[in-house]
Design goal:
70 residues, mainly alpha, 2 helices, 43% helix, 0% strand
Length: 70
Amino acid sequence: MAWDLPWFYQPIKHFPMIIKLDTSVFRIARPRTENKEKTIVPLTKEQWIKADRIVIISMFIATIAGAILF
């Protein structure tokens, strides 16, 4: 009989909750929306030139910084 057993032999009905998740994050999260198909617009020649200049300048700065550090 369960009432005859000492407390440490009693069956465990549930484990105590160690960590309780903060559920306020889930309330703040945006609900899913329908995905709209994005149309791919090719870059113009001026946009390609600007992008190339940015890449070349960043590589040039990285080369100079690498030469100074090493």
